[in-house]
């Protein structure tokens, strides 16, 4: 079994250094370009199944990068799941990184205290892994 993991392309929020986590953001023009470039690299690989997060930026990356594969695979072999979302950052999602870091330091908080714990994140990803295999 070979597994390829691809991160989503750039979003407006990435460019502005905004914490996204579970925010449902879209790719910007650069992100679409990146996804298509990724697709060129992956073009000679034959995929049996495709999984992605259910967030727009991930679906858009998948669709732009893997369009020829998606067209040949039956719909039953293309999956989206919330289990593959990036780590949730709770109340700080939607705020710029520098502001969040400054606020966490001032309030003596950690990333885990405002969002998904490392343990919960790992548990969710392992559940996704079990679902895939």
UniProtKB/TrEMBL annotation:
GO terms for cellular component: cytosol. Substrate binds at residues 7-14, 57. SUPFAM superfamilies: Phosphoglycerate mutase-like (SSF53254). The keyword Lipid metabolism does not apply. One of its GO terms (biological process) is negative regulation of glycolytic process. One of its GO terms (molecular function) is fructose-2,6-bisphosphate 2-phosphatase activity. Keywords: Hydrolase. The active site is at 8 (tele-phosphohistidine intermediate), 86 (proton donor/acceptor). This is Phosphoglycerate mutase. It comes from Lipomyces starkeyi NRRL Y-11557.
